[in-house]
Amino acid sequence: MTDPTTPPPAQLRRAVASSFLGSVIEYYDFLLYATASAVVFSQVFFTNLDPLVATVASFGTFATGYLARPIGGLVFGHFGDRLGRKRMLVLTMLLMGIASSLIGLLPTYEQIGAWAPLGLVLLRGLQGVAVGGEWGGAVLMSAEHATSRRGLWASFTNAGAPCGMVLSTAVLTGTAAVLGEDAFLAWGWRIPFLLSIALLVLGLFVRLKVAEPRLFQESERAKTAPLIEVLRTRPKQLALGVGVGLSAFVAQSTLTTFVLAYGVQAGFSRQVVLNAITISSACAVVGIIAWSAASDRLGRRPVVLAGAIAMAAYSFALFPMVDSGSGALLVTALVLGQGVLHPMMYGPLAALYTELFSTGSRYTGASLGYQLAGLGGGLAPVLFAQLQSSGAGTIALSGTITAFCALTVGCVLALRETSGHDLSGTAQAQRVEGGTLP
What we know:
Layout: H1 9-39, H2 41-44, H3 51-83, H4 85-105, H5 109-112, H6 115-143, H7 150-179, H8 181-188, H9 190-194, H10 196-207, H11 214-217, H12 226-233, H13 235-265, H14 270-298, H15 300-323, H16 327-346, H17 349-355, H18 362-389, H19 394-414, E1 431-432, E2 435-436
Helix pairs in contact: 1-3, 1-4, 1-6, 1-7, 1-10, 1-13, 3-4, 3-6, 3-18, 4-6, 4-10, 6-7, 6-18, 7-8, 7-14, 7-17, 13-14, 13-15, 13-16, 13-18, 13-19, 14-15, 14-16, 15-16, 15-19, 17-18
């Protein structure tokens, strides 16, 4: 007889597909901005500034999206825990699609002056709110439908991020190649943002077919606000979760956004660096899924711990490899960093954050922990650009990455293994590596 608590395989597949596609679309929009901030926006919205200062300012607007992500996590997390995951995911997709499309219609600095960068900051903030609410709900739709191999199924949401990077980079570079440099800077950069409308329609079509997880439907709602519940019952898990994920985001933005600008400064053409990032992002999709599946067998802690240690050591080789001037070494550096080492730190986070919180406050807790950690991704390029402008060498950049990795190592060691946790909360003591989950 079929266990009535087991979701139909078709519904699980639909939930995973929806989470993956939704993540691809959200991160296409979010990371399209990241690429554009490195190659376009300094020349379109900050033309009144010195080129180096304009780059820092452009990265500053990029960081705005990351600063807004915890707000999105709190707002959508609260209502996602109260009203359901599906409704919030439809709203986050609508918000992202509208914000990205409006960026594609935004006048330049030469047309409306200071209102242009102000509008850019506002729309970037809305992007951050949208992606802040998207991730938690998308992960939970997969994880709460899954009855086994939770690390694998939840990881498809995280795998959507580099896939979105591949798509956004391909569209941006393809547009530039077809139109030429002058037309691209004049108006062609708007095309990838306006394509968000078509992606929005596709994403909503798939997302509306997914059912609410039964685990959520049958759970008891928290008697207090979900945020209060998290802070009252799981403050340690929240704090440690932020520390665990912080270095993954620092490494991610270093290997994509910052390396794009750094590689051009090192003598590579923009297209060569973008091609290398595209290749490494495609490899990251496979790496995230593979390491997340491994975390189902080995545990979340060992995989993330090994990744953080390896990334700390690797950070001292990354910039010399880029500075070598060799295209082959550039590709190797990014594939190894983004396609192999970073997925060890990043892939298991989807399941790990899910397992840290109870069902009634899981959307809020997982979203808040993940998005607070995500601040590292927004601030790292700004910090590195400022270090460069002050004359600091690459050792200082690598040392900063290593410091964040050391924080992750400490938090992982302090956090108990979560892979054996029963999401329903009905099990008694869960015997797992490192002790019993509280």
